[in-house]
Amino acid sequence: MPILARKNRKKKAKSPARPIRPEPERAEPSPSKSSAAKRERVRAATQPPQRLHEVFGIVTLAAALLLGPSLFTVQAGDGQLMGPFGQAVGRVLNTLLGFGGYLLILALLLAALRIFAGGLGGEGEAASRRALWRERLGLVLLALSATSLLHLIGRPQRVAGASLGGLLGEAAAEALCAVTSALGAWIVTLAGLALALVLTTRFSWARSGLAVLRLARALGRGLAGVAARSRQHL
């Protein structure tokens, strides 16, 4: 027994120690992939379901179809086409906005089409927020400028007891006339309309001006060529 114990001790002493293998490092996800995944999760969590989009679209479209005939019949007739409710709504809309109420109806129609088409998605959350705030500011400026211009065009004429621009346009236009005179009110109103067009759409006055200049040059060259040919024939 002592001899076997000695042999076992010798074997244990001779057997080399097994090397400790390092554990493989786990690959960490790249920051670009992780940020993209976070954006996708945020977008999926914040985006309303498709059924809710359809509900909003139907309600918006119904409001536009109700307001349009109500306002038109109040301005052109007795306002009884849409019943007492439509008559009351049409009178309120005519008193506040006048013919500018049709801009509200057009905005509701475009909003309904945009909701049905799913136009609220497709961009990053921050970019879409910036675009929405820019559009809202442009719509407010458009309402003020358009109603003021309608009042300036039609004053002192009134339709169904209200100004062509309603109370909003009358107040804004008269305030501008008191501060900057009638000519200044026209200039400020037209400038507001131009700025509102830029804010609410992708329209660019600079690009449009360059396009008009190019078209004028092309027309001038064409007319000059026609004139030169006619002289040669003569």
How would you characterize the overall build of this protein?
Helix content is 77%, strand content 2%. The chain starts with a helix and ends with a helix. Helix 3 (50-76) packs antiparallel against helix 5, helix 4 (83-97) packs across helix 7 and helix 6 (125-154) crosses helix 7 (166-200). It is extended. By secondary structure, the chain is an all-alpha fold.
Main structural class: mainly alpha
Q: H/E order of the elements?
A: HHHHHHEEHH
Order of strands across the widest beta sheet? 1-2
Helix segment tally = 8
Low-confidence stretches: 122-127
Residue share in helix = over 70%
Radius of gyration: 35 Å
Largest sheet: 2 strands, antiparallel
Strand content is under 5%
* Distance N to C terminus: 137 Å
Please state the average pLDDT score.
79
> Which geometry do the CA atoms define?
extended
Total beta-strand segments? 2
Briefly characterize the structure.
With 234 residues, the chain is mainly alpha-helical. A two-stranded antiparallel sheet has the order 1-2.
Topology (elements, then pairings):
Elements (H helix, E strand, L loop, with lengths): L1 H13 L16 H16 L3 H27 L6 H15 L3 H16 L8 H30 L3 E2 L2 E2 L2 H35 L4 H29 L1
Antiparallel strand pairs: 1-2
Brief descriptors of the model:
single chain; 234 residues; mainly alpha; 8 helices; 77% helix
